[in-house]
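Allow me, if you will, to draw on your knowledge of protein folds for a short while. I have a record of one protein: its chain in single-letter code and its fold written as discrete structure tokens. Could you please explain, in whatever detail you think fit, how the structure tokens follow from the sequence? The record follows directly beneath this note:
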Amino acid sequence: MSYLVLARKYRPQTFADVIGQEHVTRTLQNAIRRGRIHHAFLFCGGRGTGKTTTARILAKALSCEKAPTPDPCNVCPACVEITQGSSVDVQEIDAASQNRVEDIRELREAIRYAPVRGKKKLYILDEVHMLSTSAFNALLKTLEEPPPHALFVFATTDPHKLPQTILSRVQRYDFKLVPTARLVEHLSYVLTQEGMAFEPAALQLVAREGQGSVRDSLSLLDQVLASTEGTLTEAQASAVLGVADRGLIVGLGRAIVDRDPAQALLLIDGAYGRGFDLLQLAKTLLGHLRDLLVISVVKDPLPLLDATPSELEELQAQSERARGRAELLFHRMLRVAEETSRAALPRYVLEVGVVELCAVEAMQPIGELVDRLELLEERLPGSSPRPRPAGGEEPRPFVASTARPAPRPAPSPAPIGAAPAAAPVPAPAVSAPRPAASVAVAVAAGPAAAPRVAEHVVPVVPVVPADVPVEKPAVVDATPAPVLQELPSFHQTVTQILAQHPTLAILDDARPVTWQPGLVVLGFDKDTRLEQAEWKRSAIREALTAVLGAELTVDLQLDQAARPADPTRWSLHESHTQASSDEKLARKREAEEHPARRLLTEAFGAVSFLSPIVVDEVS
């Protein structure tokens, strides 16, 4: 007797035997019990999920001696003939080869005749999406109003290729891919029936390669069993299928999260020596990193993983060590897998990619976290807001790829209104402070994001026209209010005003030209900002008076001079911009001192590196 493959030997014969498609079989059984059977069905889903098998079971349920019944007997002549594929009342048509309009015309002629043995004639059209447009059109009328004894079952893996005129005439049932855990249970049942010993890890590997298809899983199991003597082990299944076993993948994952590139390279070399497909290895490793990401965000991740409960503890330990890096590791590995599939030398691409993964750091610097906390804090009632700048920004430029930010001069102890002291001599490598008219390319951020500045800044020498009038402080009638001996910090005062009066956001761009008890002169670098401030002169004066607790004479003027060397004379916006520039310099320096450079140098010797590129954040 010829050998019958497992996929045919253990083909389901009742609705209860179909695994993973309970939503379909339950609906069909209920429809049969209640006599609400449609005349046309569309079964769509992935390969090997039970579409044609379910169509045959439906045919037996409608042709059995007890028909219509949701549980066919499988012993009557009609059921036996359908099971053997010899029933004249059940026609299975391969639409991929019989897709002409002439074939459909022959079907229309044959459908008029009553069934020979059973009570229904069933036409199963497999891969129905392969029919031509003319064939679909020829089928429309018959499909809409077939004879009472005829039913159609269409099976396809690409339902989107069917015309809407066909889809509107059928009941659609979507078959799902079978979860790996269900496949393992089914394979275990099959091997138990066959009387063969096995390791659960071997079935896990076979089911994972089946990718949700019952037929594919059973075919792979047949292939593995053909070369197995005695107990089926994971090593045997891995060698026959040419895929990495679970121990290799878990070891690679452990080396990556523990930053051990040497161990990772040894594992890849061993897999290459055993003849494993490196592209398949990269894809499997990508799935492993996906599992680590799922574990980090899901409380009960086992239903979402292709892993056994015994492996879950090791995966959870790796996920914990990869905290903050899991998503980045997955994206980097995705790029490595794509490059490996296109590379002429995939081994080298995979090795370098895994070494890079070992050196991945979490891309969440402390500076970013602090900024985000500050932005959240500023949204709370009664806190100080950080208004969005209205104009250009003046970051401190980069001196060199490894330069440190230029030190800020110490604040002058003299009051603002006094004559300015001599400016400190700047460092040799740092350019002089740029004027307010510097040309900069800025990237706009969201409303809640801190201002970011592009790296390419071209300083422009300020030209102040001689005929620009300098306004004199307006003469205001003296009042008997008290006069402070010394004013508090300008930046502190403006921050307090903006917290209480958000509509005075124009003060964010104001410089303290004169900041003395009794007299305050604010400068703005653009006419438009000066005009906005003029509209709110009285409100600004009232806010300053309320915060400082003394009457003041407030004047506004145009100030297009270069940014002063003294940070206390900067506007609040200029202070925030300088802080952002300093942070960018720190990040660039951190990238240049990244430990990945040392790891790559140790692994490959002298390596040249590109200069780090600091990308602006956009919210």
